[in-house]
Amino acid sequence: MTDCVDADELLRRIRLGRDRAAEHERACRERARGLTVTDPDAAREASARALAYEAVRLVLEEVVDPGGSPLAPTGVKQVT
After folding, report:
1. Residue 34 region, left (φ>0) first, then alpha (ψ -120 to 50), else beta?
2. Residue 28 vs residues 13, 20, 64: alpha-carbon distances, Å
3. Cα separation of 55 and 80, whole Å?
4. Cβ atoms within 10 A of the Cβ of 51, count?
5. Residue 77: its pLDDT value, please?
6. Is a pLDDT exceeding 60 seen at residue 78?
């Protein structure tokens, strides 16, 4: 990666990565729900992958919007 990119392009790429992480997170959570009864081991693996994508998404969200409102992780209720 020897390309020089400006701040706008870098931000665009970070947002794209965040959006892709969110898509993969949703897909893994859906897969985990679908496999819970039939294949518990695969469901656990899909859940772990969803958590990894969630972590990536949250970090990239913080990069895009530093100090923004705290985000509740997907699937976890926030107590107010």
Report:
1. alpha
2. 22, 12, 24
3. 22
4. 16
5. 43
6. no
Q: Residue ranges of the domains in the chain?
A: 7-64
pLDDT class of 68 with cuts at 50, 70, 90: confident
Model confidence, pTM? 0.77
User: Can you give the three-state secondary structure of the chain, one letter per residue?
Assistant: CCCCCCHHHHHHHHHHHHHHHHHHHHHHHHHHHHHCCCCHHHHHHHHHHHHHHHHHHHHHHHHHCCCCCCCCCCCCCCCC
What's the pLDDT tens digit per position in 6-43?
899 999 999 999 999 999 999 999 999 999 999 999 99
CA distances (Å), 13 to each of 10, 16, 19, 39, in order? Answer: 5, 5, 10, 36
How crowded is the C-beta side of 27, counted as CA atoms within 13 Å? Answer: 7
Question: In this structure, are residues 15 and 64 in contact, taking their beta carbons and an 8 Å threshold?
Answer: yes
